[in-house]
Design a protein that fits this description.
Layout lengths: L1 E5 L7 H16 L3 E4 L5 H7 L7 H7 L3 H28 L16 E4 L7 H4 L17 E4 L6 H4 L4 H8 L6 E2 L2 H10 L7 E2 L3 H4 L18 E5 L10 H13 L2 E4 L7 H10 L2 E4 L2 H9 L4 E4 L7 H9 L6 E2 L13 H18 L3
Parallel strand pairs: 1-2, 1-3, 3-4, 5-6, 7-8, 7-9, 9-10, 10-11
Helix pairs in contact: 3-4
């Protein structure tokens, strides 16, 4: 079967490109021909892939933005270098279609929309019709979501009538968060029950990451810290906890360096870390994949649920720590956690096998 994936593959974000790769490889392992549809989501293009113009620097000076004017050349150079690293990853690892818009989505036997926060209205500036299955396709084509992520609060901003119309485009619906699953099942009339499934990074076989491995990260001991969002109450929480933990281990603390690290580097830093301190969903996911000692910090906001739910579902809630909780070195037995992950993985694979 020819399957097209619609997701945030062009976001300059480690989790976004790695989950796209993981879903692609999982579908390939099931015997499908798989493409990631090169849909250029308008807001992602504007924010993550800004186009530089010849008069940009002059306009900054005219607007008296002196600091931005002074830093313009260096900022542009750094931004384009980061983008090149992500584009190299896409070129090497992702099977892309030709670029397309809502009006030119290529014909496929099935479309899988997700994973990632494709239903997050803040990211998409409202509901993106493409990510809700609203595009021209063959009558025989199947549309399903896979681990689409957003909050109940975000969905409640939309009218139920509009959401119902969009949900009618899908033969099957699955999401990443249990609360979102419950809300959709309780609120809307759907042909099939909404399911919760694993993020593709946890769905895929562990060996898909082996081609990224770089032994240089295994030559030293370190505690890794990584956060995908800031904590207003305690801005330095990850840095402080990681350095405190590293001191107890007798090693250094390092972070993901967005200005230098490729997506492959991101994976390898998690693979070889002695322990991990994170507030990122995919930070938690890769800690689990590589069975690393994990300290997932709760900020007390609604985004905590993105990783707290996963850890609780596999019996690893003791890996969750609060802002003011002291953390100490601890070895985790992943035997039961891996068994639980495999159970949920099989359920998630069975969901995909419906197509």
């Amino acid at each position: 079967m020819n399957i097209g994936i619609l997701t945030f593959h062009r976001a300059i974000n480690y989790g976004a490109v790695l989950q796209a790769y993981a879903l692609q490889e999982t579908l390939r392992s099931l015997g499908h021909e798989v493409w990631v549809i090169d849909y250029r989501q308008p807001r992602v293009e504007r924010t993550d892939r800004r186009t530089y113009h010849s008069n940009d620097k002059i306009n900054l000076l005219k607007g008296f933005h002196l600091r931005s004017w002074l830093n313009f050349d260096e900022t542009k150079k750094r931004t384009l270098a980061i983008r090149e690293r992500f584009d190299n990853f896409l070129h090497k690892h992702i099977n892309l279609t030709k670029p397309c818009t809502q009006e030119s989505i290529p014909s496929m036997d099935a479309y899988i929309i997700g994973s990632d926060q494709v239903w997050n209205s803040a990211i998409c500036e409202g509901l993106d019709p493409v990510f809700w299955g609203n595009f021209k396709h063959e009558d025989t084509s199947i549309i399903l979501s896979y681990a689409a992520s957003t909050s109940v609060k975000d969905l409640q901003k939309q009218t139920k009538e509009k959401l119902q119309t969009y949900l009618n485009n899908f033969k099957y619906v699955s999401v990443r968060e249990q609360a979102t699953c419950n809300y959709l099942n309780e609120t809307f009339k759907l042909g099939n029950e909404v399911q919760t499934v694993l993020d593709p990074t946890l769905l895929a076989e562990k060996n898909i990451w082996d081609c990224f491995d770089d032994k240089k990260y295994g030559n030293k001991e370190y505690v890794l810290y990584f956060g995908a969002r800031s904590c207003k109450e305690y801005p330095t929480v990850l840095y402080d906890k990681a350095h405190s933990l590293a001191k107890k281990y007798g090693c250094e603390a390092i972070s993901i360096n967005f200005n230098e690290d490729t997506p492959e580097d991101f994976v390898n830093k998690f693979r070889h870390a002695k322990a991990i301190v994170t507030s990122s969903f995919h930070g938690v996911a890769f800690s689990i994949i590589f069975n690393r000692p994990l300290y997932a910090v709760l900020y007390g906001d609604e985004q905590d649920a993105r990783y707290a739910n996963v850890l609780k579902s596999v019996g690893a809630e003791d890996m969750l720590v609060t802002l003011n909780q002291d953390i100490i070195p601890k070895e985790y037995d992943y035997t039961i956690i891996n068994q639980q992950i495999n159970t949920v993985r099989n359920k998630s694979l069975n969901y995909i096998r419906q197509i």
